[in-house]
Automatic annotation (TrEMBL):
Native organism: Falsibacillus albus
Organism lineage string: Bacteria, Bacillati, Bacillota, Bacilli, Bacillales
Name the record gives this protein: RsfA family transcriptional regulator
The keyword Electron transport is assigned to this record: no
Any Pfam family hit: Myb_DNA-bind_6
Domain of life according to the entry: Bacteria
Amino acid sequence: MTSTRQDAWSQDEDLLLAEVILKHIREGSTQLHAFEEVGKRLSRTPAACGFRWNSYVRKQYRSGIELAKKYRKESKRKKSSTTESPSPQSAKDIVIQEKTELNLKDFFTYVEQLEADREDVHKFKQENDELICEISNLKAQLNELDLNYKSQLEKYHELEEDYRSLLGIMEKARKMMVLEESEKQKSVKFKMDKNGNLQRVNK
């Protein structure tokens, strides 16, 4: 099973999204079906496709949407004109009936589209809430790590200062020992006893 993508949209994907939706509009289909088709082709959720369309892509294809709607209406008119011509006596009634049926179809299509958009917005809101919660948790973890880092850095500086002080004390002790040894060596003298042996004499 292909995993759902959550990466950024490319220009080619936006173009594919627009082409599929305009095709569905021309054919009288719903945008929900278009979102599902694009989602399958791009391995994205229909909700993600719907949000991308409504928040960004649709604004760039307003004229295309209008042309697609006109094409759909013209197609319906051509289909209706290919049917048998009514008798002169009932022509007016049939025209009124066709217009009523067309308006009802448009109305139901519009309602269906509103329902699809509402579901898409609900799904997007749910995904957005989950992302906000995840970001909040990550921020809390980041703050905790930052505090821990500052604490460890402070301890490191304290240890570094103690280490330098210890080195200073050790250096002073070493110098004192060298000085004492030097003084001791200076204070020692030797003399020869009656038997010809050297004997150390302290000052």
